[in-house]
Amino acid sequence: MFASINRSVRYKIVAVILATTLAALLVSTVALLTYEARSFRQFLISDATTQADIIATTSVPALEFNDPEAAAANLSLLDTRASVIAAAIYTSDGTLFAKYVRKGRKVDFPSLIPAPGTQIVGDTLRLFHPIIHDEQLIGTVFLLATNDLPGRLRGYVLILATVMLGSLLIAAVISFRLQRGISAPVLAVSAVARKVIEDRDFTLRAQKTTDDEIGVLVDSFNAMLSEVGQTTEALKATNRRLQKETEERRAAEGALRLADRRKDEFLATLAHELRNPLAPMVNALSMLHADDPTGSTRRRAEEILGRQLKHLVRLVDDLLDVSRITRGKLALNLKPVELHAIVASAVDTVAPIIESRRHELAVELPDEPIYLHADALRLSQVLSNLLNNSAKYTEPGGHVRLGAKPHDDRVEITVADDGIGIPPETLPTIFQMFTQGDGSMERAQGGLGVGLALSKRLIELHGGTIHARSEGPGKGATFVLRIPTIPAPVEAEEPESLAGPAKRAHALRILLVDDNVDFVTSLALLLEESGHEVRVAHDAAAALQAAAELHPEIAFLDLGLPGVSGYELAARLRESPAGADTVLVALSGWGQPQDRVRSKKAGFVRHLVKPVEFHQLLAVLETLATEA
Fold first, then answer.
1. Per-residue pLDDT tens for 47-83?
2. Which of 45, 326, 396, 456 would bridge 431 by S-S if both were Cys, CB 3.0 to 4.6 A apart?
3. Reading across the β-sheet that carries 399-407, which strands appear in turn?
4. Is the CB of residue 417 less than 8 Å from the CB of residue 242?
């Protein structure tokens, strides 16, 4: 009887232990599988959404410019994503614009586009993501990816089932022999399992007290926790990476918005600056068109036209220089030059604005000559730009100083003023493209916001540095340049200066070919007043006919003629009897080094870039006539 009762209690204890262990393992397994399924689903949807968002962002230009090939190229990058089966881009009206299908797979793309969202059907995930541009729907991204959650869960279930079965078998065998020895470890494992479920802390481990089967059970349980913990950490790392990518994307979007705002501000400034000289030019033309204008009125109108035209040319030159530097196309003419001559050239350039605003300009240079390996014209351009800024942003009657001091193998050049100064928050961005300090002052004084950026790039091309400092608004500004020096050469060259009045060339037969009627007509009138015989043509056919009648000695050809280019026209003139000996001069708005090389190969002896001042044109005629 006693033995029967004892045996019944033993089995009850074994049953309780086994039931408790099984319950704990089942709860842990369900919790882990639920967490894994939920986490993996979230990761799958998040990853697909991120891919679709990237495709949507990169496909906006393709949709706007109706370029299916570019869109298909963007989709083809998904080939590196093994989980992606197929993808497509639809236009806003639901038309299939571009698609991608992984090799070896066959996919039927949906003909109707449902509302944006995610659908998980069996082992596939279907995602429809809108493409938004300027707050408008311009298309939809469709993404079809594999959903390997069932297989993943089956693997986990198999592993956990194996662990559970082994643990239960071991627990049953040991519990029959060592009821006391097994109950405590099992209860401990159960307690750890509950703690893991409650706190999601997978670093917890059950304590191993023996090296027998109970210890194996504990090791197995701890190994399971370790594996689940590693999986959880991997998911967390993936989430952190996705969060970082999202933050980077937001930062990039912010940079794009800033660039877009600066572009809009620059375009508004450009329009303002172009209208400024155009308004007085229109008034000057009205003065010339007035009934019987007096001589003083005519001279005043001509002065206005000339001054404002130079202003327009300066604006265009600044834009071209910035474009060339940005694209790495600006070539410097580096030669040994002397600093005093460069400073003198810059001071001569800004003398009119210094005098008009009644400033006092102090120039402090060392007595000994300082030599640089530099492009004299570009370096003079930088100094004149800084002096011009100081003059503009200093109240009339102010003080501007330019000084230079040698330091070892460099010279430090300082341009300082007692003008409006620079706010501290503006100093870090003062040399960025299209950045302007005081917007109202900038508008009042004129400028595109590219002068300082251009100066910085030019100084860097010379191997130097430039920085600005100011104690704040109303306390003036100082710009400091540091440029490498060289030993005194045998012979240093001075900056190029504008040529003096050209001597009048003897009467020449000249052919002018340009599709800009106003430009070529006005130039023909000036040349005729200088005593030359001139014929005008606006295309290649008219030019060949005029050449047959005139037999020109010199022909000025625009390179961008409609239909037949200036290069081809030059070849045809050379083949004709009337133009075989004609001296060809290119007169074009294209002035890059490659343009000059091409025109030289085409037979042009000179390459003049518009706009060309008339006295410079007369100097070219005199030179060509002398060479002939």
1. 888 888 888 888 888 888 888 888 888 888 888 887 8
2. 456
3. 360-364, 399-407, 410-417, 478-484, 465-469
4. no
Nearest to 584 by CA among 564, 569, 606: 606
Neighbouring C-alpha atoms within 13 Å toward the C-beta of 593: 7
User: Is-contact 538 513, C-beta < 8 A?
Assistant: yes
| Alpha helices per DSSP H over 357-392 | 376-392
- Map tokens 């009821």 to a residue: 179
Longest dimension (CA), the chain: 145
Contact (CB, 8 A) for 379 and 401: no
Q: How far apart are CA 171 and CA 358, in angstroms?
A: 102
CA distance 257 to 265: 12
Provide φ and ψ at 623, rounded to 5°. Answer: -65, -45
Count other C-beta atoms under 10 Å from residue 41's C-beta.
15
Please count the other Cβ atoms lying within 10 Å of the Cβ belonging to residue 94. 12
Here the contacts of 500-506 (C-beta below 8 Å, separation 24 or greater) are 501/615, 502/615, 502/616, 502/618, 502/619, 502/621, 502/622, 503/618, 503/622, 504/530, 504/531, 504/618, 504/622, 505/530, 505/532, 505/618, 505/621, 505/622, 505/624, 505/625, 506/625
C-alpha–C-alpha distance, residues 527 and 64, integer Å: 49
For 408, residues 6+ apart whose C-beta sits below 8 A from its C-beta are none
Q: Are 417 and 398 in contact (CB under 8 A)?
A: yes
| pLDDT one-digit tens code per residue, 226-249 | 888 888 888 888 888 888 888 888
Separation of alpha carbons 485 and 63, rounded Å: 54
Q: Whole-angstrom Cα distance, residue 296 to residue 372?
A: 46
Omega cis (within 30) before 611: yes
CB 193, CB 27: distance < 8 Å? yes
Q: Which residues of the chain have pLDDT under 70?
A: 1-14, 17, 149-153, 174-187, 262-280, 283, 290-293, 307-308, 311, 314-315, 318, 321-330, 433-449, 490-505, 626-628
